[in-house]
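Worked example 3 (structure in, sequence out).
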């Protein structure tokens, strides 16, 4: 599997508002660090994680769900997407009005109450 960094146009999202529908454009970026994190994992996990990033983050990445939640203020990441024992950490930045950049910053896994990225324990 080949990994790449950079921006990838993935979707436009429609939100219901009191004024009608608002078009929100999201660009997904997978950072070099996240690619290196993925390469630390086995191939089946890499494929599963990339599929889930595309499935989950193109549809309302700013909405909290059972597997997607904002992290505490002061955390090194803004959002966490849970996929079994794997954790995908991403930030969402507004580039211009109505256009957002989602940056997948890091990928790791959780064992009990500890999170590991590239085999090293991190503190959220």
């Amino acid at each position: 599997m080949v990994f790449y960094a950079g921006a990838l146009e993935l979707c436009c999202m429609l939100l219901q508002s009191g004024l009608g529908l608002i078009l929100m454009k999201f660009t997904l970026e997978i950072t070099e660090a996240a690619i290196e994190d993925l390469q630390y994992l086995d191939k089946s996990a890499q494929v599963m994680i990339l599929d889930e990033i595309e499935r989950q983050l193109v549809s309302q990445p700013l909405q909290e769900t059972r597997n997607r939640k904002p992290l505490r203020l002061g955390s090194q990441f803004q959002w966490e997407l849970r996929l079994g024992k794997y954790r995908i950490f991403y930030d969402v930045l507004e580039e211009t009005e109505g256009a957002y950049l989602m940056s997948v910053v890091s990928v790791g896994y959780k064992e009990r109450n500890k999170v590991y990225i590239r085999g090293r324990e991190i503190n959220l």
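Notes: DSSP finds two helices and eight strands in the chain. Residues 6-122 form a domain with the YaeB-like fold fold (CATH 3.30.2310.20).
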